[in-house]
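Page 42, continued from yesterday. The earlier attempt failed because a stray header line got pasted into the input along with the sequence. Redoing it now with the clean sequence only.
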Amino acid sequence: MKKLFMILPMVFLLCIFLIESKPIHSEEWTAEQKEIVDWFKKYVEVSFEGGADKVMSFFHPEYIEWDFRQEAPIGFEEKKEGEEYFYKLREQIIREPSNLPLQPVSGLLSQK
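This time it went through. Structure tokens are written below.
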């Protein structure tokens, strides 16, 4: 019980500190930070619009990626092939949903 009374004021002070402290997201950003955020927003916008060529324009021609699921690193061309496949598949899913091999799962929405 004594430990609880010792810990409780510390928790209370921590809560007060967190409530009164300036939030991290309200700090002023530097020009470089704003440039990175703007670049990322544009990248996300372009990636949602679609098109492997548009997305790949954000990557350097000497780009190398090594995903933990891959045996070896891939370069720009392999990345482009993957993006083209992704956007082709995405278009098929969006425009032709009836061609998808979907199987209903019995009892998925049933209440017990």
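Notes: The mean pLDDT is 77.
Reminder to self: strip header lines before submitting.
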